Amino acid sequence: MHRNRIPLLSVLLLLCGHTTAQTHVTSPTGLLSIEGDVESYLFGAYPSARHMLFDGEFLKSTMLVKEVAMRIDFRASTSTSSMGRTWSDVRLSIGEGDMDNIVPTFSLNPNGAPTRVFSGSITWPTNIGTPTNLPTKWTKRFPFGTTWPYTGNKDICLDFDFNGGTLANNAAWATSKIYHYFLDAFPSASFNEAPQTYFGKAGTKGGCIDSAGSLPATNFLHCTAYGSNHHDAKYRGKHRLFTFSYFTARARPVVNVVSFVGIPSGFPFTGITCNLLYLDVRRFLLVNTRLASPAPGAWSGYIFPSGTPDGLVPINKAHTGLEIWAQAMFEDTQTKGLKLSRATMIRIPTEPRAVRRTALFQYNTTAKSSYGYGPYIDPGHNPILRYAK
């Protein structure tokens, strides 16, 4: 009988160990073993500062949180670029709040009284050289003194209060003196702008110059994808497309054309020798004729697709990567002959990943007891977080 108890006891211990083992999630999600590509450089950069981080990545999910941690950025560091530091008093309180209604007063953002989950001194060592691990390890840890239950009803509100900071080399660290410490972060851009590729002659390469001008005609085409975290609600989840031209002929007709298909090699257009035509004339998306401005520069003004307020259309993922081309044709001031600008090509950009993160920040020792600046969605204020649950 005694011989059977040992395997049974082993099984029970394994089961108990399984039920108590910690699991981890990151904010933004999916980055446990993936580098974030950019860095946070303001969190922990002052001897006395307050960072209120709002995290909505886990809305409608529940979890029991036991720790929050961060990791250093994968970058080459020196004793001055990521100097070590110690804070004698760091406090972390956590609660729930609504990042869509943030106010500067720190105490008004949590819903109800937050829970103090960490209090103590913290030391971050000096980083020298390039880390050996990619991504780096989660060494900037704030273990909770008590497990915090997250309901998923509102955004997580983490209130970090740093005090009594000193530097590893005993250098003077005045209240307003910033010493960066680079933590891993994720791009939180609220929009993606399509890169422009140019075809034909313009600028120093020559091109078509109006008889009354001195610079060759040029053209631009912009397409931007706006994410759901953009500050202006009317742009969220939209593409914005517009074109314009410069240096055509002042106060003379200019035709701005947008097409779905371009011809990179270009082809001659009847009577025009100073530039080639790069658009497939069978696949026009937009043709707009107007008078260029009478001022120097002969600007056409912004031209949007018809029927689209400010050029805004709902993002359609099926269109991502499609090419759009634009070019302008104008009438010369003196000869009345036709001339062409250079052409521009873009590919419709993807919608940026919507990271629901933002921060309030204050480094003034006196002011941090009451109010902060922001909110800031940039990665500089928002390191990647790992929750232990």
Structure description:
By secondary structure, the protein is mainly beta. It has 2 domains: 22-188 and 355-388, Jelly Rolls (Sandwich); 191-347, no CATH class. The chain is built from 1 helix and 23 strands. The strands form 6 sheets. It has a 6-stranded antiparallel beta sheet, with no helix packed on it. It has a 5-stranded antiparallel beta sheet with strand order 11-20-19-14-17, with no helix packed on it. β19 and β20 (338-347) form a beta hairpin. The model is unreliable at 1-19 (pLDDT under 50).
Please supply descriptive tags for the structure shown above.
elongated, 5-stranded antiparallel β-sheet, single chain, 6-stranded antiparallel β-sheet, 1 helix, mainly beta, about 400 residues, disordered N terminus, Jelly Rolls, 2 domains
> What is the strand tally?
23
**Helical fraction:** under 10%
Distance between the ends: 39 Å
Radius of gyration of CA atoms, rounded to a whole number: 29 Å
Anisotropy-based shape? elongated
Any chance you could write out the topology, listing elements then pairs?
Blueprint: H1 2-20, E1 24-27, E2 38-40, E3 49-55, E4 63-70, E5 85-97, E6 115-124, E7 140-150, E8 155-167, E9 183-185, E10 191-193, E11 197-199, E12 218-226, E13 238-246, E14 253-259, E15 262-269, E16 272-279, E17 284-291, E18 312-314, E19 323-331, E20 338-347, E21 357-362, E22 373-376, E23 385-388
Describe the structure concisely.
With 389 residues, the chain is mainly β. It has one helix spanning 2-20, and strands at residues 24-27, 38-40, 49-55, 63-70, 85-97, 115-124, 140-150, 155-167, 183-185, 191-193, 197-199, 218-226, 238-246, 253-259, 262-269, 272-279, 284-291, 312-314, 323-331, 338-347, 357-362, 373-376, 385-388.
